[in-house]
C-alpha cells in the first residue's frame, strides 16, 4: 500500500519534470520576440476597441504605432492628445497634436420642419429603409431617424430625440470614432473640429435639391442661395452640388454666415447668447484681425 | 399528380378578384412620365430634347450597353422636360415627361387586328427586333429579353419555357392575356423558339386558372412543339428556377443561369410583346396592369401606356378608398409599397394593389423562436433566420458563404414567420452589401 503511493508520487513527479523540460525547450525554440513597447502602448490606450483609429482594436493600433516612423497618420480619437502623448512617450517618438473632433448631425429636419408624406412601417433600420425609397418626407437626403447611428455607437454618445426624431450627439461622451459616420446610409453625420470651447458652426443640411424644391420639403433646408458664400470673409464656404459647406479648417467662427442665411440652415453651437454690442467685440477678440475683415468687406462692396 | 417544385414554397390566399375583368384600354393620360431606367442594367440614353415632337412608338432613349434596352414614347405629343422625377423605385430618377397631343402612331406600326401567323424574320433579325423594340421580361424582373435570347458560346438551349404561372396572389394580368390573346402569344412563342433554335416549348400554368389551361391546350394543337402543362398551385412557382425544376426536373446550379441546364424562360406577357414587335412592328410602350384590392368596388385589367401615373389607374376604378393603408406596385408577396401615387407605370408594373389599413399593417416583431419554418419554406434551400442574424450583425463574409446571393427574394420566409420577423428585409440588405463587396473584389 505504502509503496503504491510512493511510486505514484515518484512517477508523477518524473512526468512533471520531463514535461516541464519539454515545454521549456519548446518555448525557447519557438519564442516570439515582440517589441515590449507594444504592450506599454496598448496598456495606455483606452481599450474600447472601437476601431475609430482605423486599426483592428487597440492592440492593432499599438503595433502600428511602434512600426510607424512618424505619428502623422496615427491618432486615437477616443484618447485624444493626452493619450497620444503617453503612447508616444512609451514608444519614444514625437506625438502630433490634433484638434479634437466631434460627430455632427447635418440635418435639422425635425417633425415640425419637415412634413411627413407617408409612413414607413418596415424593419427599423436606416440601411433597409434607404434601400427601399428616399424616405418618408419630401427630402431625399435627410435623416431617416431609425437609429442606425445609435445602434453602432459604442460610447452611448448618440440618441434619437423623440420630440424631433433626429439623432443628438452627446458632446461629453462622443469620441469621434466615426462609427456613426460609416453607419449612416444618407451620409448625414460628419466628423468636424470640436472648436474652442466646443463652439462650432456648420450647415445643418445636405439636401441637394433645387432651392424651391428643398424649401418645400423642409423649412430649414439649404437652398444654395450663396448668401453665406458672399458673407464669409475667410473663404471658408463652398457651394457645390446645390449645397453649402463650411470648411472647418478655414472657418474662424465669425458667425456672419449664420446671420445672413435666409432659411436658418446654418447652426451655431455653444456660443454665448448674442447681445447687441458685445458680439462685435467678441468678433474682434477672436483671432480675426479687423484689417482682413475690412479688406474683404471692401472687395465685396466693389463687386456689388 | 400535378407537377410542382419539390422544395419549400407557401400557399397564400389567391384572391384573384379581377380574373373575370376583361382587358380594357385605359383612357389616354394628359402627360406621361417615362423613366429612362425601367429595366435591369444600364439606364438608357435619352435622344430627345425639350420641345421635340414625338409620335407613339418613336424611340426616345437608346440602349447604352449590352444589358440595357431602348425606350419608346407611349404617346404622341411634345416633350415637356427631362427631369429627375419620382418613380416606383422610391427615388428620383431622370425621366422624360411628354405632354399628350392626339394619338398619332408611327406609320411603320401595323395597327390592324388580324393575326399574322407566318414568321418570316430570321433568327438574327428577331433578336435585333426585340432589342430595337425595347422588350424586357414583363413578369416583373424587367431583364432585357435580347440578352436572354443571345445564348452564350458553348451552351445550347434545349427547351423554351413560358411562364404563365402568375403565382402572385391578386394579379391577373397574365391570366387575362392568356385568355384573350392566346393566338398572338403562341405565335410569339414560335418566334422565341426560332430565336434560340429549339423545337420544344412548355407553357407552365398553375391549376387555379383552368379556363386558361383549357383554352391554351385547345389553341396549341395547331402549333408544333408547344405543350401546355398544368401545375400545382404553390408560391413561388413563377420563379425561373422553380419553374424549370417543376417542368423539366432540372436544377439550375448556384450562381448559374437557366441556359446552363438548357432552358430559357420567358413570361407570357413577353411572348405577346415579342409577337407585336416582330409581326406588327410595334415597340413595347404599353402593358396590361391589374388594378385590384379587396376594398375596391370595381377591379380591372387595363392596357396602360407606359408612363401613365398610378393616380389615373386608381381614378379609373373609382378613386382611392378612404381606408387605404398601402398602395403596392406589383403583387402582395414581392411587390413594393409606393410612397406616393404620383409615380408612373413602367415596363415592370404588373399590378397596382390597394390594401386597407387593417390588411396592410405589419405585425409586431418578436424574437426568433427557432421553429425553422423559414427554412422549410425557402424554395432555394437557404436558412433565412441565419442570414437575417448575420446581416443584422454585418458579418458579410458569412452572409456570402451562406449563399445569400442565391436568394430569389420571394418573401416566403417573412410570410411564414410566426414572430413576424422582417427576414427578407435584412436578407436584401445582406445581398446588396455582399454585391458591393463582390464588385470591389472584381475590380
Radius of gyration from the alpha-carbon trace of chain A, in angstroms: 28 Å
Unreliable spans of chain B: none
Strand order of the largest sheet of chain A: 1-4
Which parts of chain A are unreliable, with pLDDT below 50 for 5 consecutive residues or more?
277-304
Tally of discrete structural domains of chain B = 3
* CATH architecture label of the largest domain in chain B: 3-Layer(aba) Sandwich
Spatial order of strands in the largest sheet of chain B: 1-14-13-17-15-16
Q: How many DSSP H or I helices of chain B?
A: 14
SS-derived structural category of chain B = alpha/beta
What is the tally of beta strands of chain A?
8
| Integer tally of domains of chain A | 3
Strand fraction of chain B: 15-25%
Biggest interface: chains and residue counts?
Answer: A-B, 14 and 16 residues
What's the count of strands of chain B?
17
Distance between the termini of chain A: 112 Å
Give the mean pLDDT of chain B.
Answer: 93
Termini Cα gap of chain B: 49 Å
Amino acid at each position: 500500500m505504502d509503496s503504491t503511493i510512493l511510486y505514484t508520487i515518484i512517477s508523477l513527479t518524473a512526468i512533471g519534470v520531463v514535461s516541464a523540460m519539454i515545454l521549456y525547450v519548446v518555448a525557447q525554440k519557438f519564442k516570439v520576440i515582440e517589441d515590449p513597447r507594444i504592450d506599454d502602448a496598448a496598456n495606455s490606450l483606452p481599450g474600447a476597441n472601437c476601431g475609430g483609429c482605423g486599426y483592428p482594436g487597440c492592440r492593432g493600433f499599438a503595433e502600428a504605432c511602434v512600426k510607424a516612423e512618424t505619428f502623422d497618420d496615427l491618432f486615437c480619437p477616443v484618447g485624444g492628445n493626452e493619450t497620444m502623448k503617453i503612447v508616444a512617450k512609451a514608444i519614444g517618438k514625437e506625438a502630433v497634436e490634433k484638434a479634437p473632433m466631434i460627430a455632427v448631425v447635418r440635418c435639422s429636419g425635425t417633425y415640425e420642419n419637415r412634413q411627413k408624406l407617408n409612413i414607413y412601417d418596415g424593419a427599423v433600420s436606416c440601411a433597409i429603409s434607404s434601400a427601399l425609397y428616399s424616405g418618408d418626407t419630401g427630402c431625399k437626403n435627410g435623416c431617416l431617424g431609425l437609429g442606425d447611428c445609435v445602434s453602432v455607437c459604442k460610447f452611448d454618445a448618440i440618441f434619437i430625440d423623440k420630440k424631433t426624431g433626429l439623432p443628438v450627439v452627446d458632446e461629453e461622451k462622443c469620441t469621434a470614432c466615426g462609427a456613426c459616420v460609416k453607419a449612416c446610409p444618407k451620409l448625414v453625420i460628419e466628423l468636424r473640429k470640436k472648436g474652442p470651447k466646443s463652439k462650432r458652426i456648420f450647415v445643418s443640411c445636405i439636401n441637394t435639391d433645387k432651392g424651391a424644391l428643398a424649401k418645400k420639403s423642409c423649412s430649414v433646408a439649404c437652398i444654395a442661395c450663396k448668401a453665406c458664400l458672399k458673407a464669409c470673409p475667410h473663404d471658408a464656404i463652398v457651394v457645390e452640388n446645390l449645397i453649402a459647406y463650411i470648411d472647418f479648417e478655414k472657418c474662424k467662427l465669425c458667425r456672419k454666415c449664420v446671420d445672413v442665411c435666409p432659411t436658418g440652415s446654418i447652426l451655431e453651437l455653444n456660443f454665448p447668447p448674442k447681445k447687441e454690442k458685445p458680439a462685435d467685440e467678441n468678433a474682434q477678440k477672436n483671432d480675426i484681425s479687423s484689417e482682413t475683415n475690412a479688406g474683404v468687406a471692401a472687395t465685396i462692396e466693389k463687386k456689388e | 399528380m400535378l407537377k410542382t417544385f419539390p422544395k419549400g414554397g407557401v400557399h397564400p390566399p389567391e384572391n384573384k378578384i379581377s380574373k373575370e375583368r376583361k382587358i380594357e384600354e385605359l383612357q389616354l393620360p394628359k402627360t406621361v412620365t417615362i423613366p429612362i431606367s425601367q429595366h435591369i442594367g444600364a439606364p438608357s440614353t435619352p435622344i430627345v430634347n425639350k420641345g421635340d415632337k414625338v409620335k407613339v412608338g418613336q424611340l426616345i432613349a437608346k440602349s447604352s450597353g449590352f444589358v440595357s434596352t431602348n425606350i419608346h414614347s407611349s404617346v404622341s405629343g411634345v416633350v415637356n422636360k427631362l427631369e429627375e422625377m419620382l418613380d416606383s423605385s422610391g427615388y428620383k430618377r431622370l425621366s422624360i415627361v411628354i405632354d399628350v397631343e392626339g394619338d398619332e402612331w408611327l406609320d411603320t406600326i401595323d395597327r390592324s387586328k388580324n393575326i399574322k401567323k407566318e414568321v418570316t424574320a430570321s433568327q438574327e433579325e428577331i433578336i435585333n427586333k426585340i432589342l430595337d423594340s425595347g422588350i424586357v421580361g414583363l413578369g416583373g424582373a424587367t431583364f432585357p429579353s435580347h440578352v436572354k435570347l443571345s445564348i452564350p458560346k458553348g451552351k445550347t438551349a434545349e427547351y423554351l419555357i413560358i411562364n404563365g404561372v402568375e403565382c402572385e396572389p391578386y394579379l391577373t394580368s397574365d391570366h387575362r392575356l392568356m385568355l384573350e390573346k392566346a393566338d398572338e402569344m403562341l405565335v410569339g412563342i414560335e418566334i422565341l423558339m426560332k430565336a434560340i433554335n429549339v423545337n420544344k416549348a412548355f407553357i407552365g400554368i398553375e391549376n387555379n386558372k383552368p379556363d386558361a389551361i383549357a383554352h391554351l391546350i385547345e389553341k396549341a394543337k395547331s402549333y408544333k412543339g408547344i405543350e401546355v402543362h398544368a401545375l400545382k398551385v404553390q408560391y413561388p412557382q413563377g420563379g425561373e428556377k422553380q419553374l424549370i425544376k417543376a417542368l423539366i426536373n432540372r436544377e439550375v446550379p448556384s450562381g448559374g443561369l437557366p441556359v446552363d441546364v438548357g432552358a430559357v424562360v420567358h413570361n407570357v406577357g413577353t411572348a405577346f410583346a415579342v409577337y407585336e414587335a416582330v409581326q406588327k412592328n410595334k415597340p413595347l410602350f404599353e402593358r396590361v396592369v391589374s388594378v385590384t384590392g379587396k376594398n375596391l368596388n370595381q377591379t380591372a385589367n387595363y392596357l396602360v401606356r407606359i408612363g401613365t401615373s398610378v393616380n389615373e389607374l386608381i381614378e379609373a376604378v373609382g378613386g382611392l378608398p378612404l381606408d387605404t393603408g398601402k398602395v403596392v406596385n406589383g403583387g402582395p408577396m414581392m411587390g413594393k409599397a409606393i410612397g406616393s401615387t404620383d409615380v408612373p407605370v413602367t415596363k415592370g408594373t404588373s399590378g397596382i394593389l390597394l390594401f386597407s389599413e387593417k390588411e396592410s399593417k405589419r405585425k409586431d416583431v418578436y424574437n426568433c423562436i427557432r421553429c425553422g419554418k423559414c427554412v422549410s419554406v425557402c424554395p432555394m434551400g437557404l436558412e433565412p433566420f441565419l442570414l437575417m442574424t448575420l446581416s443584422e450583425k454585418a458579418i458579410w463574409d458569412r452572409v456570402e458563404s451562406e449563399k445569400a446571393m442565391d436568394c430569389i427574394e420571394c418573401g416566403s420566409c417573412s410570410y411564414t414567420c410566426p414572430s413576424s420577423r422582417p427576414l427578407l428585409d435584412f436578407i436584401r440588405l445582406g445581398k446588396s452589401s455582399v454585391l458591393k463587396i463582390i464588385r470591389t473584389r472584381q475590380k
